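Usage

Read records sequentially. Each one opens with the input sequence:
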Amino acid sequence: GMEGVGDEQDKMVTVDVNPKSKTYGKVIHSVSVGGRNEAHHSDFTDDRRYLWAGTLDTNKIFVFDVHSDPAKPKLVKTITDFVAKSGGVVGPHSTYALPGRMIITGLSNNKDHGGRTALVEYTNEGDYVATYWIPTDSNLQGAIKTGKYADGYNYDVRVLPRRNLMLTSSFTGWSNYMMDFGKMLGDKEAMKRFGNTMVQWDLHARQPKKVFDVPGAPLEIRCAWEPTHNYCFSTTALTSKIWLIYEDKGGEWQAKEVADIGDPSKIPLPVDISISSDDKRLWVNTFMDGKTRLFDISDPFKPKQVYEQKIGSQVNMVSSSWDGKRLYYTSSL
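and closes with the structure output:
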């Protein structure tokens, strides 16, 4: 990696996005949080007044006031007891808003730093509420195991409130994600320590219902926008597949592999995905070849690749604008 700029600390930066401004496209403010915490995802609370940002190494969660002066966010709270409060969860990853609540996905635990982990719930004010461990073979918590795996791993979370659905995916633990990336790829034992599951939850009860086999580390989850489209997509990092999680005609949720991403034998390593607002297009980024691929998902059971473009080395996140005219990308992980 590269040494950081400025004080070489993790920070929140504000970029001017007003095309009519003299400082358009420039960093106009920054807030250093101190240290190198392995800063990762961030997300707004449901009222969009605060932004929560997790860290994968130090387990701190930074809460920024972004409503008082949007051009100059303020760090108003640092949660430093996440591991203790949650009962040993390590690596706060996704911070996802529910009414008055933030659901946080952990990636690991403080016992063996492996992939066994949980969801953790907080209030918008930053008070701990509860921990919900991902079901395992030894403790399914009433969930139905539909295949070979119930590994207890976690990564992302998404909800469809109208269907009382919460979905989680799975990645790997601290011992892997803090390892040198090249070293990890060459370590046969490390490569066995990846999640192979997605879990259907009762959103309101916060109870797991089904554990699906989704081999190869399913990462980001994105759900369709249309109120009658009861399905979500995920992609598997190690097997380069697109998976569809959908509600069948009987009202049961199922998981189905529906497409390859590039040449899976070359492990392009899909990372982020984005669904267009009309539910007709799915953008898929692949880390190893730096490409973005566009799939026609008009029929969600039969995605078809219709475009690809190399963005640069190690492309990661992608976000499609609501009007479908722009795409935004980030590099690295």
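Summary fields computed downstream for this record:
- The chain has a mean pLDDT of 96.
- The two ends are 11 Å apart (CA to CA).
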